[in-house]
Specification:
Layout lengths: L9 H10 L7 H11 L1 H8 L4 E4 L5 E3 L5 H39 L20 H17 L3 H9 L5 H7 L2 H10 L2 H10 L11 H19 L23 H4 L4 H27 L2
Antiparallel strand pairs: 1-2
Helix pairs in contact: 1-2, 3-4, 4-7, 4-9, 4-10, 5-8, 8-10
């Protein structure tokens, strides 16, 4: 078929970039970039900032004098950004899981009400939601190969909350927190200064932040692009609560400074790319 993608050798890929896309691609360094990263990962993944439109056939038009080295530089920046974000996201994840586990037991008669009972969760949460969360946690624990999980399963009659909180997937953990009693969610909101316009704990912002954190973390962990990652519009019936623009202004000043600093560096680098291109137009 006309749209089928056929196998191309590295030399043929380089020729295609020069002939069809007018991208400077010559010599051993450029070939090594294609060998290590792959045509799809590099070109399809990082072409957008280097394109200025499409032709009548829908093919992308690249800025004059675009080179594979420039595209590779953006890819390397994205790799550095992933490493940076993953380092701190995992620290935040560990902290919020630990604090949630502690507060969860504290608010459940110091752990006497176990996490696998529905009355350990908020009365405002539906029974279906609580049962789904408990079921997911059980399923993930049963599949765990961690030594401490296996030890508790063999030597004890139940898995403590702190192990459950540590082992379950991030999305399941967020569901556990979301369905927890208000004293739990409000304590975490208070800890991170997440309040609404009435100075009340903003649970929606908390849950939305964690979902967004999870999405970025997964992209970093699976080697997906993060330099252009953006928040998708939540479905109207979504109960998770996504971060929306009005909520961003409610974050503490320290959050804003950190975020703006990261993206100002990123925009500065992209601006440098575009300035170089404009000089050749």
């Amino acid at each position: 078929m006309a749209n089928d993608k056929f196998f191309l050798t590295y030399n043929q890929q380089m020729k295609k970039l020069r002939k069809d896309k007018k991208i400077d691609c010559n010599g051993t360094p450029h070939k090594i970039s294609l060998v290590r990263s792959g045509y799809f990962n590099m070109i399809n993944g990082y072409k957008t900032p280097f394109t200025c439109g499409t032709d009548t056939n829908g093919n992308h038009i690249y800025f004059p004098n675009t080179s594979l080295s420039q595209i590779n530089s953006l890819k390397k920046f994205d790799e550095s950004l992933r490493i940076f974000l993953l380092k701190y996201i995992t620290q935040v994840e560990e902290e919020v899981r630990t604090l949630t586990g502690y507060k969860f037991d504290q608010c459940n008669d110091n752990g006497k009400i176990p996490w696998y009972e529905t009355n350990a969760y908020s009365s405002n949460a539906t029974l279906q939601s609580k049962m789904n969360t408990i079921s997911s946690a059980y399923s993930e624990l049963s599949k765990s190969k961690s030594e401490y999980v296996q030890f508790y399963m063999k030597k004890h009659e139940q898995i403590p909350t702190w192990i459950m909180i540590k082992v379950v997937n991030f999305s399941t953990f967020i569901d556990v927190l979301h369905n927890s009693k208000p004293n739990v969610t409000h304590a975490i909101c208070k800890l991170y200064s997440m309040y609404d316009s009435n100075n009340l704990p903003n649970v929606k912002l908390l849950i939305g932040s964690l979902h967004w954190l999870r999405r970025v973390r997964n992209s970093c962990a699976h080697n997906e692009r993060v330099y252009c990652i953006h928040q998708t519009q939540a479905r109207s019936n979504s109960a998770s609560g996504r971060i929306l623009d009005p909520y961003y202004s409610q974050l503490p000043t320290s959050y804003s400074r950190c975020t703006k600093k990261i993206f100002s560096i990123f925009l500065c680098i992209l601006n440098t790319f575009f300035q170089k291109k404009n000089l050749h137009q």
